[in-house]
Amino acid sequence: MVKHKQTNKREIRASITFKTAFGMAIILSNFLVCCPDCISADISHNGTRPRENGRVDAFICNNPACRDKRGKKTGRQFTVLTSGEIKKLVEREIGEMIHELYRQGAKAKTIATKHGVSNAFVSVLRSAVDVTIARGLKKDRLVPRKTTDTAVSIDETFFKIDGETVYVIIVRGYRSSKVLGINISKSRAETEMRKALDEAQLNTSKRISIITTDAHEATRAMARHLGYPVTLIVHPHKKPYDKVVIERIEYDGDVQVITQIGVKANVFKKRKKREYHFKQAKKLTKPPAKRPRGRPKGSKNHSKPLKSNKGSPKKRGRPSIFEVFKSGTKGYVKIRPKFKQITFLGCVLPPVQKGLTDAFTFFAGKNIQNNHAETENNVIRSVLNLGGQRSMDHLERRIRATERMRNDPKLKPKGVLKHRYNARVYLKRVVGADFKDDHSNCSIELNAKV
Asked: How do 210-214 and 151-161 pair as beta strands?
């Protein structure tokens, strides 16, 4: 039996030459033509395929493992512009676009201009990433692993969907700088704020004991109903921004003790002796039973005593959050932000000491503010462009996918584009604005090497 002489298989390489409108030539030279599925160089010619500007060479993969993976009798058929090396370059380009879109907060129009693609392509890419992340993302797992945050900031922003206001409530951790809780709602009620905080608590291994927020009454009510000691730092969201109220909420049996501390926003900014005001209020966590309706027995003929001096009528409505500055007791403290030292002068109540110490931990050398969560809301508003389908579910999926990408730098969704990789995504970047989508100004040269 005569044996055939074994020959080494030749790898096929190609070069693409682009001719610009100014007569310049740009060459993408000598890259390996391989299978886009298995990246194997075991390929052979498979005739030609018709294209708009003429026929192009086609190839077929001869790797048996590739055929088994595809579950078909024949290998993958492809051309030079859909080969494996071009696919790698396109994947790298798409990875840069995803990084800029989700982590750097760039706008879709800016990315489309930079990478030479259309706005529609960026929109398709973003939708594919959102769906890919949402498919494998549990609702209570915004972070890859639990953080150790004990302090969070809460803020909300809003979108308009069919003329109706939809609020986005964000809870962000100070230590990890990651978004731990999100709630999409049609209102900013206490229950909606609590949903976002409960999700944040599931994503951290420690109890949240410090909360910063703006002067929204729902967040204050939520903090008072948590049932455990907490420090609430309230920074007003309206001018002037020079006053801050720190509320220390503690419990003594069935009695809730709320200690309000009023300070200037720059109390921890420089080394100086500072003034603060404080007042305490106590109330039962379980209010007493309501009195029965009607006149008490035996009081029909009893006349009410006349009041000798009638004072000024009581103001209606809830008291101002800054009432502590008017009726509170004064106290003094020495601040040394450079050495992280805070010294209380005179006799000080433990809740006052605890509240000011918690605030000093995060705002030493700074003004007290809530920009930690507000910054993330600004990123969401700049990144999200509610085009196409407009609903609360669509909005929530988009926001959660964005925050999941920002929370986990290692997260790289694969297979985000269901259609075939198009070489123009990469070639447009290489050649520039003179490149045409129909490849009419490029020529491909094939050469085989042993």
From this structure: parallel
Q: Are 61 and 75 in contact (CB under 8 A)?
A: yes
Only one residue has tokens 């000691």, namely 229
Measured distance CA(79)–CA(45) in Å, rounded = 10
Residue 28 pairs in a beta bridge with 16
Cβ of 258: how many Cβ atoms within 10 Å? 18
Entry pTM:
0.69
Q: What are phi and psi of 404, to 5 degrees?
A: -65, -40
| H/E segment holding residue 139 | none
Residue spans per domain, the chain: 11-138+413-449, 242-287+321-368
Residues 393, 391: Cα–Cα separation, whole Å: 5
At 254, which amino acid appears? D
- pLDDT, tens only, 344-369: 998 889 999 999 999 998 888 888 88
Going edge to edge, which strands form the sheet with 341-345?
179-185, 164-173, 151-161, 210-214, 230-235, 243-252, 255-264, 272-284, 329-336, 341-345
CA 230 to CA 219: how far, in whole Å?
12
Say what the pLDDT of residue 74 is. 78
Q: Kindly give the residue spans of alpha helices, DSSP state H, lying in 139-283.
A: 190-202, 217-224
Alpha-carbon distance of 175 to 370, in angstroms, equals 15
Q: Do 162 and 220 touch, CB atoms closer than 8 A?
A: no
Bridge-based pairing of strands 341-345 and 243-252 is unpaired
| Cα 119 from Cα 438, distance rounded (Å) | 18
H or E segment and range at residue 32:
strand 25-32
CA distance 37 to 229: 57
Neighbours of 82 (CB within 10 A): 18
* Predicted confidence (pLDDT) at residue 137 exceeds the cutoff of 60: no
Tokens encoding 181:
């809780």
Encode pLDDT of 207-238 as tens digits. Answer: 999 999 887 788 888 999 998 999 999 987 66
How many residues are there in the chain? 450
Residue pair 417/94 in contact by the 8 Å Cβ criterion: yes
**Alpha-carbon span 207 to 311, nearest angstrom:** 47
- Name 336's bridge partners: 341
CB-CB neighbours of 8 under 10 Å: 6
Which residue is it, tokens 């060479």? 57
* pLDDT surpassing 50 at residue 140: no
